[in-house]
Amino acid sequence: MKKVYFICMIALLTLLLAACGSRSQEEVVGDLEKKVEQMDGYKAEATMTLQMGTEPQEYNVEVWHQKENYYRVNLQNAQKDQNQMILRNDEGVFVLTPALNKSFRFQSEWPNNSSQAYLYESLVKDILEDGEATYEETDDTYVFTTKTRYQNNKMLPTQKITFAKKDLAPVKVEVLDTDQNPLVTVNFTSVEFDAQFEDGDFDVKKNMTGAREQLEVPVNAEVMDEEFTVLYPTQEIVGTELESEEKIEIEDGQRVILSYEGEKSYTLIQEKQTVVPSSAEVVTLTGNPVDLGFAVGAMTDQTIRWSYNGVEYLLASDSLTQEELAMVARSVQGDMVK
Question: What is the pTM assigned to this prediction?
Answer without folding.
Answer: 0.85
